[in-house]
Amino acid sequence: MAVKVLIIDDSKSMQRLLAAILSDDPMINVIGMASDPYEARTMIKELNPDVLTLDIEMPKMDGLQFLAKVMALRPMPVVMISSHTGRGTELSLEALSQGAFCCLPKPRIDDEAALREICAMVKSAAQSSASITRNAKQPSTAATATKRSRSANMPEVIAIGSSTGGVEALTTLFTTFPADCPPTVVTQHMPASFTKSFAERLNKICKPTVSEASNLTALEPGHIYIAPGAVGHTKIIKTDKMRTRVSPGEPVEGHMPSVNVLFDSLAETGCKNICSAILTGMGSDGASGLLRLKQAGAKTIAQDERTSLVYGMPKAAHMLGAASHVLPITKIADALLSY
């Protein structure tokens, strides 16, 4: 069955361009075009689309405000397509934290790769729709943050994997981490230009130091390392001490960086004092790696369905028996910080 798409953009010419791009795919059916969020609200009720494409700058209400209302009142996959949501911009990260499936720049008619990507992202977004829940949005991080300090039973290292919805989940998680938290390595499915901006954004609001991982960096307490997107895979190796290794490679089951690659590498270090978690995301990346960590003696956690924007990766881990604990996002920090 074709994916039903509603285009929301105040530019008639952009509406026509997006409609032409999407309609060229036999698996996509453009069912309507709205010029502002109020018109879109009526059309959503009448047409029941599977996916929205949404601009940022529009009359009467901007796209981010409308996105927040959609995710609170009628959650559905939203693909942001705007001149203001280029790779790695603040507005892109804000849209992702509000629950957008992905953010794409407005396409040029001569950029065939960008045109194909729009169709691919719309179809991928539709596949996630069954997993987007009404309880996906969490209380603000300021409301959920609690004071924590380092304790003697903290793990030697923490490893985390996430994908769709991970921006908000990781923000909720890390704003409650203490300044001297165990070294933490994260693989979040993101394009290359997003991960550096995301790390910088987290670094401004979190007590630990957050940075993009680099090759052969020694893991230090009080540091969170975000795997760089698309350039290769991030592993954890043990030489004189635990280090990150960032090296080129091919996608693993469609992902680069891969959560399974991160988890498998950590299991190979022989370290026993490990806590690891799989958070919200589409697909099953990380499930087999989490099982391997559990078999190696690690504490393993999967985010629960109620608080996951997309209950794909955590569900796959749970179904595989890889998670020793299934917890809401607000409980995962405490669990990770205690081995």
From TrEMBL:
Signal peptide (residue range): none
Record-listed 4-aspartylphosphate modification sites: D55
Keyword Flavoprotein recorded: no
Places the protein is found: Cytoplasm
SMART domains recorded: REC
Coarse class of the protein's main subcellular location: cytoplasm
One GO term describing the cellular component: cytoplasm
Described function: Involved in chemotaxis. Part of a chemotaxis signal transduction system that modulates chemotaxis in response to various stimuli. Catalyzes the demethylation of specific methylglutamate residues introduced into the chemoreceptors (methyl-accepting chemotaxis proteins or MCP) by CheR. Also mediates the irreversible deamidation of specific glutamine residues to glutamic acid.
Protein name: Protein-glutamate methylesterase/protein-glutamine glutaminase
Taxonomic source organism: Ahrensia marina
